[in-house]
Each structure stands twice: as C-alpha cells, then as structure tokens.
Tc1-like transposase DDE domain-containing protein
Amino acid sequence: MPIALIIYLNKLSEQYPEQLNIIQLDNGSFHTTKALQVPPNIILLFQPPHSPELNPIERLWQYIKNHDLLGDLRQFRTAAIAYKNGVK
C-alpha cells in the first residue's frame, strides 16, 4: 500500500477542504491499487498508458541515464539542478 501517497492525499484534503483538488498521476500500480482510499474532494487524473512525455520526471530520468549520472550523488544533484534550470 502506498503509505506516502495516502498521507499526502489526506493532508491535501485537510488543507483545502472546500476545494476540489485534481492530482495527475501515471499508471503505476501503487497509484491504481484498490486499497487506495481517495478523499471525496480529490480526483485522481491518470495519464494515458505509455506516455512518458507527459511526466516531467521521466524526462529527468532520461537525462540522468543519458549523462551517466547515477554513480555520483554530488554530480547527480548538480545535473538535476542544471536540468531544472534549463541547462542541457
């Protein structure tokens, strides 16, 4: 069960109880499990299958893989910040 997601959804629901909150997610099994109880003021909007272009983190992972940055945490952090700031 996705404990962190459950905590996040509950906190979001409590923080904005009068608003309808829409969260966009990929189709990871931990996002789609039937055990996930979604608060009534939250709608989960799922991306189409096999659409990594809609998920910004997928582009970051591709950048990390292409630049062989998985071995050095400092180099990884510097590259992630550069990517976020638009440096290619």
The two ends are 37 Å apart (CA to CA). Residues 3-46 form one domain. The chain has two domains: 3-46, 55-84. The longest strand covers residues 21-25.
